[in-house]
Design brief:
Immunoglobulin-like; 15 strands; membrane; 23% helix; transmembrane helix; TonB_C; 5-stranded mixed β-sheet; protein transport; elongated; 7-stranded mixed β-sheet; alpha+beta; transport
Length: 253
């Protein structure tokens, strides 16, 4: 399983950058662009408020976006561009997908934009007005987790801490979900879980979302025999990156 980051660049349409929209109430040139939630602090300058919006939007995207399964499987990378209007009330409307890279990335970008909270609307002559914005989101694969990360993060499955397991010890684990914890005891949400069962050169690979084993995974684990290896790959998200955490178990009898 690969590790991905999501980068973005935010532009406010204005002046000659785009044609005049059909709805004349939506302005393409404003004095002050919309502000993201949490940036409308009266104790800071307007310049500081604008500087606040970009990292806030970036954090929101990275906390909520999910790399589509089909894109991960096909290693699809690139930039998706979503255009939308922010009304005079700060609502997001009229979403358009103006650039797509396929494999579900465009739909995922649109989903996350729809989730955004209300903006403080743009201002022109001190009056709230509707305007258009565009949000490019880059889906990009980066290197797998470093060796230090693999030592820092661990998969916890019930009370099983050793790397060799018997059939009897495996049975109660089938009813438990998996957790990923770091060195300090912090718990991370498992976004994708991959199970690999290996025996004599043959490999079975199954994937699911979340930290709960799928029915297919449970069925395959129940059929395991001594000597087979179980590899669990959990994909977690920390801030702006996704990290792969691996645990290998051997069924001994």
């Amino acid at each position: 399983m690969n590790k991905y980051i999501f980068a973005f660049f935010l532009f406010l349409f204005g002046g000659s950058l785009i044609a005049q929209p059909q709805d004349s109430s939506i302005l393409t040139s404003v004095d002050i662009p919309p502000l993201f939630e949490g940036c409308d602090d009266p104790l800071i300058s307007e310049e500081q408020r604008q500087a606040c919006s970009v990292p806030k939007i970036q954090a929101f995207i990275n906390e909520n976006i999910v790399y589509p399964d089909s894109a991960r499987a096909r290693n699809v990378e690139g930039v998706v561009v979503v255009r939308f209007s922010v009304t005079a009330e700060g609502k997001i409307t009229h979403l358009e997908l103006i650039r797509n890279i396929g494999a579900g990335c465009g739909q995922e970008a649109m989903r996350v934009v729809r989730m955004m909270p209300d903006f403080r609307p743009a201002l022109r002559d001190g009056i709230p007005v509707a305007t258009k914005m565009t949000l490019p989101i880059r889906f990009k694969k980066i290197a797998t987790a470093s060796a230090s990360n693999k030592k820092t993060y661990q998969i916890h499955w019930g009370t099983m801490y050793q790397n060799k397991i018997t059939k009897e010890e495996l049975k109660p684990l089938l009813k438990r979900y998996l957790l990923v914890r770091d060195y300090y005891g912090n718990t991370y949400e498992v976004r994708f879980l991959t199970l690999k069962i290996e025996h004599k050169g043959n490999e079975l690979r199954l994937e699911t979302r979340g930290n709960t084993l799928s029915k297919e995974m449970l069925k395959s684990l129940k059929k395991m025999r001594a000597g087979q290896l179980i590899t669990l790959n959990a994909l977690i998200q920390k801030k702006y990156e996704e990290i792969e955490v691996v645990r290998v178990l051997e069924l001994i009898k």
